[in-house]
Write a structure and sequence with these properties.
two-stranded antiparallel ribbon, eight-stranded mixed sheet, 10 strands, alpha/beta
Length: 498
């Protein structure tokens, strides 16, 4: 059965989200049938089992392609849950490799798109998802009630909308580094309702959306939706394999709690002991705050399916400690500080669009950039350092990408250069900034400066073919020095260093 889910962009600029287009959902969809196909006893699987098939062209839409992994125990006489991976840059193998082992152990099929994207003017993810679901429905022994959407950044946001368009089919969303799209809110689970869309979220400690994910925890509480949100060391990116392993294990537990899968008491007890051992190790190491959070999570996750009395007692014991209360207050204060910074940044970027944009010196003073960088480098307060780094990341992502891209699209190279000057103070000489500077300077006819910026981008690692085929840099192609730089940088074994 063909499932059609489409997204319509609403051209509303939103600083709070790195997804600049807010999306409204248009659905012309029928759910996948409760039984999608006749049972094919002893039939040969379409794909080899137990190994990654790196690229498959979709039968439903030949313009789409994806990678596939079928667990080693896969057979056609039973139905299997499906993980659909949507990387924001179409790097299908990157997240697949990080879920492959847990998918094999727990028996999940995995399909990962090469066509998923974030930050595109026309969202391509509906086509990518439709092709995967159509092929899976026809070619795989799919459990139509247990589809899980896994996204990072913008693809995590649109996964909420896809889940809303496929009620009864999408059992859960694993969202990394992003929450709801715009003002969207999912349907709340009614009191006594057994099932609700399950959400597992994660964000890096230096992710500019960390605080958004922190706040999402409380929002999902009010919606009575099963959820868990955790953290990992790192920026706005996919987490390491252990975090995604935990996410899939958590979804498996939710399926047993909701009746989508028969409860396996032995497996549940093993997972509970594993989780308790992790919390106990944190407490022994002296990290009372993180141990307290882990005990609380265990209490919620295993309610009704396991004996979590030990976790309940430990959480109550730790929450009485002043160190835990002090850290909780400290983190809340850091969230307020970062929210205030976002407000200042939003006002500043709005002023750049005005008749008299601020100078670089004025922008630096309004953001107190020197103080931010000082706090980010302070080893004495790691939480405050991570918060400052997140503010710097938010400043960086807007001034190095979203804002200059928007100004260049509007033909305003002068304002693009102004915000790029601000980005250069966060990460001096970064090849992405050099690349946008080359485009802006070329459009302004400042050929010599544009060539210097191209050289900076190439020496910083920008692929020479990307520079050469960029129409914004076409006026530089006749320059012998520029052509030589491209040829030299493309030679095998040539390494550039700043």
């Amino acid at each position: 059965m063909r499932v059609t889910v489409s997204l319509k962009p609403s051209l509303t600029w939103c600083l709070a989200s790195p997804l600049l287009l807010l999306w409204t959902l248009e659905v012309d969809a029928a759910p996948l049938a409760a039984t999608t196909q006749a049972v094919r006893v002893a039939a040969t699987p379409v794909f080899p089992v137990g190994r990654v098939v790196e690229r498959v062209t979709s039968r439903a839409n030949p313009r789409q392609s994806y990678a596939v992994y079928l667990p080693s125990g896969y057979r056609e006489d039973r139905e299997w849950p499906l993980l659909v991976l949507l990387d924001p840059r179409g790097r299908a193998l990157l997240p697949l490799e990080r879920v492959r082992q847990v998918a094999d152990r727990l028996g999940y099929m995995v399909v990962s798109s090469y066509n998923s994207r974030s930050d595109e003017a026309v969202d391509p993810n509906a086509d990518a998802l439709n092709a995967i679901l159509d092929d899976a429905d026809r070619m795989l022994a799919l459990d139509p009630r247990r589809i899980y959407l896994v996204g990072q950044s913008g693809t995590a946001r649109v996964s909420w909308l896809f889940a809303a368009g496929l009620p009864g089919n999408v059992a859960g969303v694993i969202g990394i580094g992003a929450g709801f799209p715009g003002d969207y809110r999912p349907r709340a689970r009614a009191p006594g309702e057994q099932r609700g869309l399950a959400f597992f979220g994660a964000a890096g400690t230096d992710d500019y959306n960390f605080d958004e994910m922190w706040s999402l925890d409380a929002t999902l509480d009010t919606l009575n939706l099963p959820h868990r949100i955790t953290w990992f060391d790192g920026p706005h990116t996919w987490p390491p394999a252990p975090v995604l392993t935990e996410a899939v294990e958590w979804m498996e537990l939710q399926a047993m709690k909701s009746g989508l899968k028969p409860a396996d008491a032995v497996w549940i007890a093993s997972l509970l002991q594993q989780r308790l051992a992790g919390a106990e190790a944190l407490e022994r190491a002296g990290d009372d705050y993180l141990a307290w959070r882990r005990y609380r999570e265990i209490t919620l996750d295993f309610r009704g399916v396991g004996d979590a009395s030990g976790a309940i007692a430990a959480a109550r014991r730790l929450e009485q400690r002043e160190a835990v209360r002090r850290m909780d207050r400290h983190l809340e204060a850091l969230v307020r500080t970062q929210d205030a910074f976002y407000d200042r940044l939003g006002t500043l970027l709005g002023d750049f669009r005005g008749a008299k944009p601020p100078t670089l010196a004025q922008a630096l003073a309004r953001l107190d950039l020197d103080e931010l960088q000082r706090r980010a480098a302070n080893p004495g307060d790691s939480m405050a350092a991570h918060a400052a780094e997140r503010s710097l990341e938010q400043l960086w992502v807007y001034t190095s990408f979203y804002e200059p891209r928007d100004y260049l699209a509007r033909g305003d190279a002068t304002r693009a250069l102004a915000v790029l000057d601000l980005a250069d103070r966060v990460r001096p000489g970064h090849p992405d900034v050099c690349y946008f500077r080359a485009q802006a300077l070329s459009r302004l006819g400042r050929k010599g400066e544009a060539l210097t910026a191209v050289e900076c981008a190439a020496w910083g690692g920008m692929p020479p073919e990307q520079l050469e085929r960029d129409p914004a840099l076409a006026t530089l192609l006749a320059d012998a020095g520029y052509r030589f730089l491209l040829v030299l940088s493309a030679r095998p074994g040539v390494a550039f260093a700043q």
